[in-house]
Amino acid sequence: MSVSNTLSTASAKPRTRRPATRRQKRDWLFAAGFLAPFMILLLVFQYVPLLVMARNSVYDYSLLNPAAAKFVGLRNFTDMIDYDDAAVSFGVTFLFALGVVVFVIPIAFSLALFLNSKLPARGLVRTMIMLPVVTSSVVVATMWSFLLDPSNGLINGVLNIVGIGNQPFLTSTSQALPALIAMTLWQQVGFGAILFLAGLQGLPVELTEAARIDGATRRQVLWNVTIPLLSRTTLFVVVIMTVFSLQAFAPAFLMTQGGPQESTNLIVYHIYNSAFIMQQAGYASALSVALLLVVLAISMAQMALLRSRWNY
């Protein structure tokens, strides 16, 4: 037999996988032991409740008497279409999310540019913009309720000094939703700035230096180099802020109770109101399933866009 035939015969033999050593098995056991508590908590407190919510969405029952649940099929979902409350609540929530995203992106990007520069007081500004992010939403909503109080709030006090007069921020159908957007913007803009700052610090310095050598101004470098390179970061911030806004609850619950005239009836507050106030737990579960599908659709859109041709 020739050498070539011997080599071909040897290469044709399937490679046997080495059995795991005792140390590898021990490492796997240690990893499984560390992961098990988290996986159990995730299963018990997230995936099991999701399955229960999906099951409850096809029943009509009250939380005061859950044993009297009656199977109604898809009637809870058809009621969402037949009645206007779900459509109005989703519409208000989408407007709220749109307002938050439209204002968060440019302000957060501007703050990130400032924090990425060598200007003084960066440490102070970084602390100031991160304090609202780590503060509880309940505390922030309560604080802003005092600030926007129509009679003796701090903001109305300043408006009186300049001669504008008191404004019914939280009791006006035209001002209540913008007031909630302003509060959420104040709280979440720091998180967006940190994400943009991470993106800026990850950009290759060679590209901006090459653009400056070629004679580009700072504005041209920002518009033609920096912003395109931050396409994925911008998309990520948009999706994160949209999902956060769709799940907002504390502002509507603590500041306006969904009013006036349902102008701030955010979908999560509407779910809470349907389940615990109106005692329509099955209908609230159907609303939760619809909200989950909307959030999943946004996440899938993010994944599709992130897989696009933006290879910077």
Describe this structure in words.
It contains 14 helices and two strands; from the N terminus they run H-H-E-E-H-H-H-H-H-H-H-H-H-H-H-H. It has a two-stranded antiparallel sheet. The protein is globular and about 75 Å long. Strand 1 and strand 2 form a beta hairpin. Helix 4 packs across helix 11. By secondary structure, the chain is mostly helical.
Summarize the structure.
This protein is mainly alpha-helical. Helix content is 72%, strand content 4%. The protein has one domain (84-306): MetI-like (MetI-like fold, Orthogonal Bundle), CATH 1.10.3720.10.
Keywords:
312 residues, mainly alpha, MetI-like fold, globular
Coarse structural class: mainly alpha
Write down the Rg.
27 Å
Distance between the termini: 55 Å
CATH superfamily: MetI-like
Topology (elements, then pairings):
Layout: H1 3-12, H2 22-56, E1 59-62, E2 65-71, H3 75-82, H4 84-115, H5 122-134, H6 137-147, H7 154-161, H8 176-201, H9 205-213, H10 218-229, H11 231-246, H12 250-256, H13 267-277, H14 281-306
Antiparallel strand pairs: 1-2
